[in-house]
Amino acid sequence: MGAKKKTLKSLRSGRPPTATASRSMSRKASRTLINSHHQLEKKRRQAIAEGDADAEKSLSAEIATLGGLKHYQRASLQGQSLERGGDTSKVLLEWLNVRTMKDIKHCPRMLEVGSLSTRNACSLSGFFDMVHIDLNSQEPGIQQQDFMERPLPESDADRFDLISLSLVLNFVPDAALRGQMLLRTLSFLRRNLGEPGDGQAAWPGPLLFLVLPRSCLDNSRYMSASRFTELLETLGYKVMQEKSSQKLWYSLWKLVQAQPPSTVKFTKREVNPGRSRNNFSITLDHPPEPTTKARR
Ligand SMILES: C[S@@+](CC[C@H](N)C(=O)[O-])C[C@H]1O[C@@H](n2cnc3c(N)ncnc32)[C@H](O)[C@@H]1O
């Protein structure tokens, strides 16, 4: 660890206010840890799907040896500052436009799924009534909760004007679960934006902010930007903004359909053949066939 500690100062100086990792690791170490965690989680889910309890136990032990989700989150925080151009919510705030936000009389309610910090740009802006959740909370202001287990809202008071899924979909280790996560956003967004003229008309929502590593769309055998758009449009979203950085793809979607689709069949199919490509994919089988098992 001695050699790694030498990099501590430079890492800290490059870190945005959201990133408060207590111990730094090198850029290479954080990238390796993130990749290993994703691979092991994927294998663990496969073991669960196949009912292989021994394999699941040994993969869980390997994940624990790596430091588990807590260590992964620490690496992700460093990733924000080192490689990804900082806090992704800065892009969302730019798109929403400070002037517009100041004109909105109601305070838009925002759900940040996969929250590592309560001090990102959106949280500090004061424009939002924020709810932060994560599988593993690292701060008192972040509820420890699985979005997939969050009770479905009973009224608009429990719903949101904006949901953020920044680098969360790619964290989910299973293609079918990713589809379910996107589908689930529909239940958590407010569709009724109030009477025109009451100040709420300026809010452009209901909105979904999505960030993915570019490789998920640019270099996957089973996913591409057009295929992803096809799925989001099937769910009732329309793209409002999108941009790419060197490593990430940012997008902002507006929910434009009044009702969720009654059926969706979005299957895994090869769209970009090639040996060097990755296997990122999203599938959705809604409503699920009774015998269908979640599988990549
Ligand atoms: C790579 S980190 C991204 C964090 C941050 N949003 C960002 O943009 O850097 C992914 C986070 O999503 C969280 N996460 C994944 N699935 C989740 C779920 N179903 N519910 C809540 N949080 C989830 C993980 O615990 C992890 O902290």
Q: What is the average per-residue confidence, as pLDDT, rounded to a whole number?
A: 83
The description of the largest β-sheet is: 7 strands, mixed
Helical amount: 25-40%
Strand fraction equals 15-25%
Please state the overall shape, judged from the principal axes of the Cα atoms.
globular
Placed side by side, the strands forming the largest sheet appear as 3-2-1-4-5-7-6
Determine the CATH superfamily of the largest domain. Answer: Vaccinia Virus protein VP39
The quaternary structure here is single chain
Alpha carbon gap, first and last residue? 37 Å
Molecular structure report:
By secondary structure, the protein is an alpha/beta fold. It folds into two domains: 27-80; 88-194 and 202-286, Vaccinia Virus protein VP39 (Rossmann fold), CATH 3.40.50.150. The chain is built from eleven helices and nine strands. It has a seven-stranded mixed sheet with strand order 3-2-1-4-5-7-6, with helices on both faces. It has a two-stranded antiparallel ribbon with strand order 8-9. Strand 1 (109-113), helix 8 and strand 2 form a beta-alpha-beta unit. Helix 3 runs antiparallel to helix 4. The longest helix is centred in the N-terminal third of the chain and has 23 residues, at 27-49. It is globular. The model is unreliable at 1-22 (pLDDT under 50). The structure holds S-adenosylmethionine (SAM). Residues 69, 73, 76, 80, 88, 113-114, 116, 133-136, 146-148, 166-168, 171-172, 211 line the site of S-adenosylmethionine.
